[in-house]
């Protein structure tokens, strides 16, 4: 019997007979005959926004993700890149289950239509100004030192740093699970002067990191922020390692002159690994993390100093929390189609690799209290998003040896050029798509590639000729392209496009290809910050008590971001924002 992803989730948790006896596919109906409301709730009608008790009840009966995982199932929701997320992210108490997988993926052979995230969560139905004003008038429901908005890498790093600095911290996340856009990061973390570079005998300098980043950003970056990114990059690696991360693998990303992109050993994607580490570290540090809690207002006093936020909780409604410092770590606006169309009309309608939560909330919150924006209209299209999907094909694939060819099978640009140039080159091709081609040696080396295969994204053949026929490329052209590339690899010089690094030849069958096209990947602009991660007003003065880090900010990347710099940005400026937010809160009377 062929199971869809949804039917497996239901059948793996509940017996088919018991489930069929109910009229509704919701948990309340199922548990009605097994203890009633108390089988899930402490008190019916009193549920925390994070639904912590309810999730603990699920696992106490059915086990954790490892117990529910089914290795026989091709696509297993209990073994996904999202990690061990809340059961209630998918399973609903009083309505039909809704799989988060469906928000981003379309799977061949399974009855899971790609819905382009048309559904709306409770936290994404607009802002209720009347309810917000009532919450402010009612006064704070509670008080803390630092509030961090957004539980991706920047938010977690800020919250952990603030807690380590001695502040009371509340971390607020609008989604039903943490991770944000960072959960989708596949490439790595750029750093200079690390032990990993020393072990691999890589000669690198802070000046080179700065020069490469400025050149990649077309010299529109804020030099002071780039200097900090470079100088503190190695310390950021040490920080992650102290929390339990493995960053031992090393490769080169587009726009870098040497190998400086660090990632987990074994070819694992960097984002899921880091988020898993940060989730555990935040628990160990005692960070008060609240899910399903959307910040809908930054509250300031008459002098424009931060005094708190208004939160819209899934179950608790609107309420105010007082705090002397707030850190915005809400990410960019790469999944807000209206903002994309407004700021960059030429990208209107383009697919996006972003998490559905990347809707520009932090930008709107900051603008509402007079924050200045920088580079807000600069949006990066990643050149290799899976064609007709929203799945990013990491730059790592090209970095470790894949070549990029057009519909005929001819290379047309260096695979390790910057993302903007690669995207432009693909869009200039007649069909506006390309193929990444590689062999079995790369397939075995990069685990993320095996993940793409798992999702039926790869074309596979025993010979180059057969691969050309399957993909519609010209047989002679692809064979000549690969023959030439292997010759360039052997002689150590790419005669056609000057590719500087060729780690592998393409010789070992089977051969693979994945179809790619540019998609919205990163918004370089956002709120303006200074070197302390303080948010600046339109006169370039700090808004007292407001800090920001990660993709919600502008200035670090200029007009184009280099692969590997975003993760570094979230860690380094997340730490800076959290530390300074704690200092401000603890010193302010």
From TrEMBL:
Catalytic activity: 2 Fe(III)-[cytochrome c] + succinate = fumarate + 2 Fe(II)-[cytochrome c] + 2 H(+)
Record carries keyword Flavoprotein: yes
Record's signal peptide: 1-20
Pfam assignment, any one: FAD_binding_2
Subcellular location: Periplasm
Cofactor(s) needed for function: FAD; heme c
UniProt keywords, alphabetically: Electron transport, FAD, Flavoprotein, Heme, Iron, Metal-binding, Oxidoreductase, Periplasm, Signal, Transport
Domain (FAD-dependent oxidoreductase 2 FAD-binding) ranges: 145-567
CDD domains per record: Cytochrom_C3
Cofactor: record remark: Binds 1 FAD per subunit.
EC number assigned by the record: 1.3.2.4
Main location: periplasm
Residue ranges occupied by any Tetrahaem cytochrome domain in the UniProt entry: 30-106
Enzyme class: oxidoreductase
Entry's family note: Belongs to the FAD-dependent oxidoreductase 2 family. FRD/SDH subfamily.
NCBIfam families referenced in this protein's UniProt entry, alphabetically: flavo_cyto_c
Protein name: Fumarate reductase
Organism (species): Shewanella decolorationis S12
